[in-house]
Amino acid sequence: MQASRGGPSIILSGLKVRPWPYQREILEALVTERARFGRLRNLVVAPTGTGKTVVAALDYRALRDGDGGAAVGPDATL
After folding, report:
1. Furthest C-alpha separation in the chain
2. Which H or E run includes 26?
């Protein structure tokens, strides 16, 4: 059984990348830290192989596009 991977996506080396549910939670937490507490420098701590680089790429792309990283909903596409 494979988990659903809705949410934002990016194209890396010709592959469409979508975050796993736990990665979406991290992205949402980053948005909350920025919006609610004004924390612009955050550290993501997760085990090896969980996709921290993908999270960083999705977060950066959302910030670059000017929505403050808020594009983490199931219908958002990066």
Report:
1. 39
2. helix 21-37
- Cα 19 from Cα 25, distance rounded (Å): 9
Query: Which CA distances in Å does 70 have to 1, 31, 45, 46, 76?
Result: 29, 6, 20, 21, 9
**Model pLDDT for residues 16-62, shown as the tens digit of each residue:** 888 999 999 999 999 999 999 999 899 999 999 999 999 999 999 88
Residues in contact with 12: Cβ distance below 8 Å, sequence separation at least 6, in sequence order: 54, 57
How far is CA 58 from its chain centroid?
A: 4
R_g of the chain, CA atoms, integer Å: 12
pLDDT of the residue at 78: 45
8: CB partners within 8 A, 6+ apart: 18, 19, 27, 58, 61, 62, 71, 72, 76, 77, 78
